[in-house]
Amino acid sequence: MPLQPIPSAPRMRGLTERRCSRRGLLRAALGAAALAPLAACSVPGARKPVPTTSAAIAAAVTDFWRGKKAAGKLDFANYTQYIDSDPGDQSRHPTLEAFSRFSGITVHYDELIDDDASWFGKSQPEFASGQGIGYDLMVVGGDSYLTKYIELGYLAPLDHSRLPHFAAYGGAAFKNSSFDRGNVYTVPWQSGMTGIGYDPAKVGRKITSWQDLLDPKLHGKVGMWNDAVQMGNVALLAVGVDPETSTHADWRKAAAWLRKQRDAGMVRSYSTATYQSSLQRGDLWASLVYSGDIFQANQSGSHLEFVIPDEGGLLWTDNLCIPVTAAHPVDALTYMDYVYRPEVAAKTSESVQFVCPVPGAQKAIARDAAAATGKRRALLESLSTSPLVFPTKAAESKLRHLRVLDEGEEKQWNALFEPIYQS
């Protein structure tokens, strides 16, 4: 069936309407709570052997998908405001409606995931009982909770023979992540970069390094986060270590760098909820930031800059995955592949405005811009040319992935990094 056009929204949502984005809600509602130690979520004895060889993975895929057929239904759980919406009716999502027309699959869509921690806590007993969670598709961040889903056998291995658009159009930087080598269980939904955001008018020069956050001229004007995962990983970059291959000795060195910064009085606040507004007001001159926040701030009139430091920045992804208990997994897999069509990924990016995992969507957004007028045209042109949405190859070469931690390592990690912002 030919793909039918996805209707364009008559206008784009402005920054004030997008404040409660997926990442924004996580920061404002939970701060560090979502990243607390996971010991309470552990399930002793419940772990299942995870296939690691090509043969074992192929066998698991064959086993799971044998006899499964399309049902014409899809139940999809996502974060709030993490998909395109009709500005006149936020309950309508043009790409979902176009998918239904294209595939004949009826979609029941819920925005009920607040954060990975609470969603895991809610769904884990249902997974453990084998009853199912009522959804065929869900979005999970590429953090320790995703590792738990995989280790506990809660996610279906993906049949990549049914994901041709992911193979053809998914960006190389977003494949084969450390938390899911070979994309056995996940494909990226949206992505983003963690680096330094700053006000050049206040700083008076270019910021190029994590070491700039130790500059005495920025005393009391630096923002860091009450987030052990992100803080620990960027500190590893600051001391010249790739987080993915870091050792316990490296962690101690990174924690010492953060304590030096704190004890020198460089940090005005450790907050994941307020740094963007503080940068815009001028209370902070430089801060740890998500790339999408700087793009959105500048759309509202700010003149901030985002930099991936010379030592590197972080690339994160939020991921689509299929629960092993899904009632309609074939329909979920069909949707997974559908969103990797560049014209579909473009519509999602035009609303979400984070890093798009489909590089081909850049040209699709440019075409949409050429057909638009006024403020919408200006915004789409900004999106299509922004390195904060479509990173350059040079930028991608400096991006690193988060360190994947097992349960024992998490406790040691948190013991090192949490006291830095809690004291």
Present the secondary structure layout.
Elements: H1 22-30, H2 54-65, E1 73-79, H3 94-103, E2 106-113, H4 116-129, E3 137-141, H5 144-151, H6 164-169, E4 186-198, H7 200-203, E5 222-224, H8 228-238, H9 248-263, E6 267-270, H10 275-281, E7 286-290, H11 291-299, E8 305-307, E9 313-321, H12 329-338, H13 342-352, H14 361-371, H15 374-385, H16 393-396, E10 399-400, H17 407-422
Parallel strand pairs: 1-2, 1-3, 5-6, 5-7, 9-10
Antiparallel strand pairs: 3-9, 4-7, 4-8, 4-9
Helix pairs in contact: 8-9, 8-17, 9-17, 13-14, 14-15
Q: Spell the H/E element sequence.
A: HHEHEHEHHEHEHHEHEHEEHHHHHEH
Query: How many helices?
Result: 17
Mean pLDDT: 89
Helical proportion, percent range: 40-55%
Number of domains: 2
Q: Indicate the radius of gyration in whole angstroms.
A: 21 Å
CATH structural class of the largest domain: Alpha Beta
- Regarding quaternary structure, what we see is single chain
- CATH architecture term of the largest domain: 3-Layer(aba) Sandwich
Give the CA-based shape.
globular
Structural class: alpha/beta
Structural notes for this entry:
With 423 residues, the chain is α/β, with parallel strands linked by helices. It folds into two domains: 231 residues, Periplasmic binding protein-like II (D-Maltodextrin-Binding Protein, domain 2); 143 residues, D-Maltodextrin-Binding Protein, domain 2, CATH 3.40.190.10. Helix content is 40%, strand content 14%. The chain contains 17 helices and ten strands. Strands 1, 2, 3, 4, 5, 6, 7, 8, 9 and 10 form a ten-stranded mixed beta sheet that branches. It is globular, with a radius of gyration of 21 Å. The chain starts with 21 loop residues before the first helix and ends with a helix. The relative contact order is 0.18. About 9% of the residues have low confidence.
